[in-house]
Amino acid sequence: MITTLPLIDSQNNLLSSCFNNTAAAYKFYWFISLIEEVERGNYQLRKQDIFAGMIANSWYTVNYFNVSLGKQDQLQRAIKHIIAIENLSIDEKKSVIMEALKNSQSSDTKKILNHFDAEVPHRFLSPWFPNLKGNKKEIYQLSQDFQNNCLYAVNEQEVKINPEWIPYLIQNIGVLKAFCYWHLSLYLQKHNPNVPDIPNKLIKPPRRNSLIKQRKEFWDIVIQHTGPILCIYTGKILTDDYAVEHFIPYAFVSHDLIWNLIPADKSFNSIKCDKLPPMDKYFDAYFEIQERGLKTILENRHDSKFLEHYLTFIPDLDSLHTMSRESLKERFKENIQPLVTIASNNGFEFMF
Question: How many percent of the chain have pLDDT more than 90?
Fold first, then answer.
């Protein structure tokens, strides 16, 4: 529940309406960047710092997960240009991106960041000045005295948070972020209707989940009962020293379900990275390993929780005893092929 203060209780609807009928993602990232500066104790903010926060907060979503912010979104285009200009990696730490952009002396970077000055600072205040229809000059002028108790004052260089709003923002930082990220996830899902798990692609996770359980409680058991497995990429015999890898990149599926995990040569796993495997070259081998794994665990560890991972496309696992191999293969293909196609359409590259 968002805690309110008497002076701004009536303003809550105005703040939430900032995200109504949003045609671009920049409003979400502007607000997130702004309240993160407030969280740091900064109430008089350089625009360049807020713009840097917008880029940093959307960096991982755009670069690592290849989530589209919309075909016409300038924020996404800005990120693609800044990668080259500032020589930053696609999975760079947020703090490094922030510092690089806040202190950048590149005229090209400054020009890219300042592009947002023409759109977001005054338009975000439109709910407080509905009759001005986004008129930049007038909104700038009226905001100087915090007319209509607007969230901040804005001029050509800076944004100054309304002192009446500061206690509210500080007290409700967590909830306001969650509120904004929720609406952002709805916006991104609309523009990426076939991309799975959008909410978990908004923030770079501190670390990836370990796959130790998938190895020890599934693939080690399979190898123990059926013997060594051949790496589908290198042909190397896998016994003890192997990696558990995502057939479709984690960066797209954003999960560790066992039907997308197979043993692989450690050295090749690091090379494959977030590339897609061509289906015509690798699907048959992938299926053979998965079939072997599924049937082995079903026979020897019938109570394994990992068997539940298959239920989305094989609802009745007991039917495997009577299902033809071709039918089972088709189930796997119908599950995998659309994901590979969508990932490719969203910018993920194939291995070769």
Answer: 66
- Are the beta carbons of 331 and 259 closer than 8 angstroms? no
Q: Which of 334, 326, 270, 261 is nearest to 293 (CA)?
A: 261
**pTM summary value:** 0.76
For residue 300, the surrounding DSSP H or E stretch is: helix 279-300
Distance CA 121, CA 47 (A): 9
Helix H or strand E segment including 13: helix 12-17
Which has the closest alpha carbon to 278: 243, 233, 319? 233
Q: Which of 25, 52, 27, 24 is nearest to 37 (CA)?
A: 52
Residue from 284, 8, 250 nearest 146 by CA? 8
Task: Render pLDDT for 126-176 as a digit per residue (tens, 0 to 9).
Answer: 999 999 987 999 999 999 999 999 999 999 999 999 999 999 999 999 999
d(CA 22, CA 233): 45
C-alpha distances (whole Å) from 7 to each of 12, 165, 274 are 11, 9, 50
pLDDT score, position 1: 44
Cβ neighbours of residue 108 under 8 Å, at least 6 residues apart? 81, 85
DSSP letter for 165, please: T
b/e per residue, 260-299, with b = 16+ CB within 10 A? bbbbbbeebbeebebebbeeeebbebbbbbbebbbbbbbe
The secondary structure element, H or E, covering residue 27 is helix 26-39
Tally the residues of the chain. Answer: 352
| Closest CA relative to residue 188, chosen from 91, 56, 75 | 75
- pLDDT of amino acid 9: 54
